[in-house]
Amino acid sequence: MKQKLITLLFVFTVINIFGQTPTVSEPGKTNSPNNEVLPLNDMVSNKVINPLTKVPLDEASILIYDYDGSLFSFDLETETTGWTVKATDSHTEMCANAVTLHDGVIYVPFINGEIFAIDNQTGAVFWKSRLGNVKDQIILKNQIPTINDGKLYITTQNSNIYALDIKDGSLIWKYKLDSVNNDIPVLFFDNKVFTQSGSNFYSFEANTGKVFYQKSFEEPIYGKPVTDGENVFIANGKNVLFALSPDKPDVLWQFKFDENQYNIKERIFCKDKKIYFAAQGATVSSVYAVDSKTGTQLWKTDFKDDNVEYIQEESDNVWGYTRKGRLFQLDINNGEIAFEANLTTLPISNLEFPDDDNLLYYYCDAGLIQFDLKEKDENVFYMRTSIMDNVYRAYLKIIR
Question: Residue 389 pLDDT more than 60?
């Protein structure tokens, strides 16, 4: 009896230290045994429609995840629409996520918690998976599926991080996070998955969901995790950028930017041992470059009386646009403005660059815009038949 009591106390101690055991299911099962012990809000169901296979790329097309929540293929050569896919039963018409293209298969998350695997050429669905089973709620927001070694990782608005099998959408493991609302994409690096949730930052073993560490901060973490290939970088909701070890919860350095600025969110990326990010502010928004080894500021470019809405790296330049429709290109080495234009149509998507160096694409409330960089001319390449009252965001991806 004494031995049993000691064993029981040891088990409770382990649970208290490490939090919880990841929920694991058997791949290929529509309702796995482990799903049976999950609350209805956490369950994962999947349905295989066609066997998953690699698909050749339809390189003449661009994927448009429209702001009404529909995903369709648009041929850039013939300027015609191909296939269209929508969620099964979404109660709200809204695109709040992005897609991932892997081996010719498109993995698209919908706000109602559904994830589809789709043939990029035909729009045929390989499988459908649903995270949670509660209707009339937004389950997936600001997510882009992170795929590695046959697994798809994603966080949800019902407190979970999930790992799914990309062959059939079945649950491999899940973990209950600290916060209910999780709307930042995860990072895969060094066979680990990193994500934020509330004031906590997590490092998971990618295959099993075992927690390597859980780091708590004074302020909520509200920036996308990125890596330079050695360490991991995150930002809080205020004005601090942190460098963390991928193996233990050590803060290697922290960089404080202007105290009147905040809200990095997804406006951050790494390249060549440097971190580039945009912070917003009431009067001045800035793009920063910081050395990833030391946390030293390399340069800063200010945008007065405007806020930087989006940045990305393209051909060793920083491209982005502001809330007032100012399209810009910064020299990645010194932050100097190499190009700018005042747009008459406001972008609500990422920027996509075709092979033609003189063009770029973005989406606005009216449709797809082809922008001529030489002429600074906006051409409506695809026009929507109607404009919705509430426009949130859209997403573009050239198939290549």
Answer: yes
Q: Give the separation between CA 58 and CA 74, rounded to whole angstroms.
A: 10
Inform me whether the pLDDT recorded for 345 exceeds 60.
yes
Amino acid (one-letter) located at 177: L
- Residue 364 to residue 371: CA distance in whole angstroms: 12
Give the integer Cα–Cα distance in Å for 378 and 288: 28
Q: Distance (Å, rounded) from C-alpha 66 to C-alpha 48?
A: 25
CA 384 to chain centre: 25
Contact 140, 157 (CB under 8 A): yes
Distance CA 137, CA 140 (A): 9
Mean pLDDT of 89-109: 94
SS3 label, residue 10: helix
CA–CA dist 169, 52 (Å, integer): 10
d(C-alpha 128, C-alpha 131), whole Å = 10
Question: Is the pLDDT higher at 99 or at 19?
Answer: 99
- How far is the C-alpha of 172 from the C-alpha of 159, rounded, in Å? 17
DSSP structure class, residue 236: B
Angstrom distance (rounded) from CA 95 to CA 70:
7
- Residue 219 to residue 238: CA distance in whole angstroms: 8
Burial of 366: CB neighbours in 10 Å, binned 0-12, 13-18, 19+? middle
Per-residue pLDDT for 18 more than 90? no
Cβ 374 vs Cβ 358: under 8 Å: yes
Closest CA to 147 of 129, 162, 126, 130: 162
Contact 274, 291 (CB under 8 A): yes
pLDDT in tens, 160-186: 999 999 999 999 999 999 888 898 999
Q: Is the CB of residue 147 less than 8 Å from the CB of residue 105?
A: no
Residue pointed to by tokens 């191909």 = 82
Question: Computed from CA positions of residues 232, 236, 241, 242, in that sequence, does the dihedral angle turn out positive or negative?
Answer: negative
Mean pLDDT for the stretch of residues 194-218: 96
- Rounded average pLDDT over 192-198: 96
CB 54 within 8 Å of CB 121: no
